Amino acid sequence: MQIIMKSYRETHCHFCFNELPADTLFCNSCTISLYCSEHCLEQAVGCQFVRIGRFSIMQNNLSEELWKHVNESIPKNRSACANVCNQPEHTHECGGSHWSAVLPTDVVLAGRVLMKSMENRKLGLEFSKHIETLLVLLISQIRVNSMAVVHMKSVDEPNLFIKSSDFSPIRNAFTSTVEQVRVGLAIYSMGSLFNHSCKPNLHAYFLSRTLHLRCTELVPAKCPLELSYGPQVGQQDLQGRQEILQDQYSFKCCCVVCSELNLSDLVINSFWCPKSNCLGAILGNVSYQKHEDNSLLVTSPSYSGKLSIPVVYCKANIREVAYSLLEKVNLQEIGPGYCLSCLTFLDLASTTNYSSKSVRHPYSKVVSQAEDSVGEAFAMIGQLEPARQHCQESIKILERLYHTNHIAVAHEWMKLASIQLSLGNHADALYGVMRAETIFSLYYGFHVAKIFPFVEDLKKEARRIQLGGVSV
């Protein structure tokens, strides 16, 4: 059961959630719901309802005798209606009222779920006194169990790579502007079966209103398949993720990355140690205390929990930014402002520019975003060599915050590939596109070309120029 978000009611189809064409169709009764095709209109409001609307228009334009002939000639049970849902989702909302457009989205979705349940169970009017109680329960459950229907949207110029063989650096520099758009809210019985992980092995995506689930890595037997309910390692630190999950879903996450010390949580919001030749991370509001069992107690204003020390092969990257947490046996506590490696103190209260690259840790998210923004700015003014350098630095940081095959890294590879292509580095551009396509395939499988059509366009452009204008 799905419903469109309020902010997209005027621009997207109310059934399939795709963008509306110029010749929009609408419900003949309330004229509130908009649809992109007759198929979506019939699925949403019912085939018989659509026929009645068409017949009323036709009847006004025909003579009485001709209308009687047409009405008798049309079969009562058309095969075209065979696949239409028995309980169209818009039927109970229709009737000239605007309540479905005014009420909150989750309330309208709860109404759809309730009406479908009543119709499936053939519940009569004697059951109406329990409806209000059920509706309140449904609303509270929907706010926890619903999924946002997300579509990918590119705000770049369409058909960017099909213009000409003269690849102008300023005009055609592709600095990615693909964003996730939350067009709808839905309840999926299958999707709600999966637990949350801040480092999921399952990726959810949507084509129209259909939910697709795909494993992004090889999962050993008996290991659970897990989705992310929103926060992921690399996007927020441990405290931020736990706060979001507690506020929205009322639980404390105990997944692998929330139970074990990891590099991303140490550096994502950290400062750089002022001591020369030290790459240690300094945290502003987090303290660590080491216990006799070699575990760590992490404490912040919004979170307190116990972390285990990772196995040997995961320690290498952590050691260079938090040596003391791993190696010091008699460590009592490292408070806010102290380097996690050499224990040097940085007075954060006297630090005036928190966003400065000289103050922030080189692996932090602030530096990654700064590298990305500066690189995009250079690309926009045609300075592609510094743009390439900043884009490469952004990729290095993202690979530490996430991992080398994360989708966020793939988008950066696409930016770098387009810059390389503009610089004339065709082999490097093709490598970047292939690298991004490999990562996209882990998340979207054979739907990559449908969701990211510009990947194939850029790959063809790189090959065509590399072969002297011969398209392959």
TrEMBL record:
SUPFAM superfamilies: SET domain, TPR-like. Transmembrane segments: none annotated. This is SET and MYND domain-containing protein 4. Coiled coil: none annotated.
